[in-house]
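Usage

Read records sequentially. Each one opens with the input sequence:
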Amino acid sequence: MQKLLDETEKKAYVFLKKFGFEEAKITPIVEKGKQNLETTLKDLEHLLSSEATYSDTKVDDVLHALKGLLGQMGNHKRSEEIEALRNHLERQKLVAWLEHA
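and closes with the structure output:
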């Protein structure tokens, strides 16, 4: 999970700079985005932690939010991965993706 956070943070700085944001405004935006991303990843981790907490609907909602955050932070490759995962919700595939993220 830390790998994904670090990767997305780096991409966000480049993405926002290309998008026209001033350097001084980028850092707070990236920090807030990283916090939101971490919270969303923890929510996903909790939902996937056991059969009892797993729900296709809830997982899809979290994946939708995650896809949006990644896209807004410039990590389009990972955002596309999330979209592919959403199309075929399988708990074990999601767990494997999260473990390698």
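Summary fields computed downstream for this record:
- The mean pLDDT is 95.
- Residues 16 and 22 are 8 Å apart (CA to CA).
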